[in-house]
Amino acid sequence: MLRPTPLYIVASPNPKVGKTLLARLLIEFAQSSGRRVLGYDLQSRKTALAERFPKFVEPVDISETRGQMQVFDRLLIDRTTTKIIDLGSGPFDQFFSVMEKTDFVRAARQELIEPIVFFVTDAEVETAHAYANLRARLGTATLVPVHNEAASATIAAEDFRASGIDCSPIYIPLLSHLVRRVIDRATFSFARYIKETDGTSELHQWIAPILTKFRELELQIFANRLSLFLKLGIANEQRYFAEKDRV
Predict the structure, then answer these.
(1) What are the residues whose beta carbons fall under 8 Å from the beta carbon of 143, sequence distance 6 or more?
(2) Please, what are the domains in the chain?
(3) How do residues 84-110 score in pLDDT, each as one tens digit?
(4) HEC readout, 32-92
(5) What pairs with residue 81 in β-bridges?
(6) What's this model's pTM, rounded to 2 decimal places?
């Protein structure tokens, strides 16, 4: 039985909450696992992720139909590649409107691709409303809240509950200003730092739990899939995700 290939969508309706930082961590996590990675930078202004990874992250403008087709069509092909989207606050509503109208989650699951929305939270009331609205619009999609302490130190946990999977939020602790300057360097690599250090530094202890949470999340998604697969007794692998959305 094949594992579902994750499609990570890092999103927030607000700017400057740490979306690109999270996308960087996801890219290096996937690469360190030996996977091929393809990224899309859907920021409406500064495309920082594409500038950092120019060889495999492409900036795309989805304000027009052509850009939307360019992204959504590519997301459904080549399940051997882990895809990561850095979704800016500008195209936030437009992206998820297309995702909802095209029933993208169902189509992706039929191709053995599992969309996972990492929603970066903050303390604004409007953000909690946006999260609740997104949960309702995307139905059975997997939504995981991400609490970045640098964006907001106080979060009402009851406003941000995972959807489509029973898991706790991902927490990104606040880093000191000096360490933040280190990770902002163009040549810095999270994976290389973890490999080359002994685990006692502030930065190592910041990176390791986040990467562990990514691993646990992927394992839980696979376990949920296997459990339902066995429960339904489906012989055809390709029918699994179609049935999942009907249960």
Answers:
(1) 117, 119, 131, 134, 135, 162, 163, 164
(2) 5-244 (3.40.50.300)
(3) 999 999 999 999 999 999 999 999 998
(4) HCCCEEEEEEECCCCCHHHHHCCCCEEECCCCCHHHHHHHHHHHCCCCCEEEEEEECCCCH
(5) 36
(6) 0.90
